[in-house]
């Protein structure tokens, strides 16, 4: 008897959604799309599910502090009577239905590179920079570690196609310049109207675009801007300590554009580096405290030795007198 050939379609499919269609992780809904804004996150070689939970918890925690809770109950059933179990169950069911209907504040999608994710958000573009800055500022001030797997946490203001024309069309929009001016006005401590900036570009999984060419396009456009269009300010490039960094990250066929400040203070927006500094600082403080305690013990021991010597001298004098 010959072997029975099993059909390939008889294998059980573990990746099916409710409609019976095959789940495609590389679909457009699960990838970065043009026009989105959010956060680019890199992480250590850990389980992605752990990283996702950490990202959601971190962003929601600080978003609640800055912007308030994500869901506000417009209509609630009275549950003052704790014995009324039916009303309590109805209230919980109502909350679940409302949460399913609304789009969540943060959604994680594939970035197109290894050990990195992109978080889309419904928050306005002007809110993403203060949100990330609050994370780093709190970590520096309180010396607390807010992450275990996250390495870099970068706000992304704009996304466009990885072509010269698409980049030029984006940077001439008023939203692009307004994003730069909002960061300058919020932290403007200088009387000079010059905006010192620098541009850095990198690419991943793309061989058609040159990073230096993208930098030249953006730099030449900003320097050529007239002060009348910039509220009396002008752009100049600073190679050493610019006030504003414009970061371009080409991933496959899109360009992620980030406009940030305090780039060196936040260690290139690397949360792992900030955590390392805090742990090293705590260890140094512990060493200093131990050294101070040892020095105190030594001084106390020396004082006791001196007292013993004085006592011995007194005893010898008493013996000689007797």
Outline:
With 322 residues, the protein is of the alpha+beta class.
Would you give an account of this structure?
The structure is a single chain. With 322 residues, the protein is α+β, with helices and mostly antiparallel strands. It is 43% helix and 18% strand. The protein has 7 helices and 9 strands. The chain has a 5-stranded mixed sheet. A 4-stranded antiparallel sheet has the order 2-3-1-4. Helix 1 (48-67) packs across helix 3 and helix 4 packs parallel to helix 6. The longest helix is centred in the C-terminal third of the chain and has 51 residues, at 271-321. The model is unreliable at 6-23 and 74-79 (pLDDT under 50).
Task: Please tag this protein with its features.
alpha+beta, 4-stranded antiparallel β-sheet, 5-stranded mixed β-sheet, 322 residues, 18% strand, 9 strands, 7 helices
Strand runs, count: 9
Helices and strands: which structural class? alpha+beta
How far from one another are the termini?
A: 124 Å
Uncertain residue segments:
6-23, 74-79
Question: What is the string of helix and strand elements?
Answer: EHHEEHEEHHEHEEEH
Radius of gyration: 30 Å
Sheet with the most strands: spatial strand order: 5-9-8-6-7
Number of helical elements? 7
Give the % helix: 40-55%
Main beta sheet strand tally, sense and closure: 5 strands, mixed
> pLDDT average, as an integer?
80
Gross morphology is globular
Question: Strand content of the residues, in percent?
Answer: 15-25%
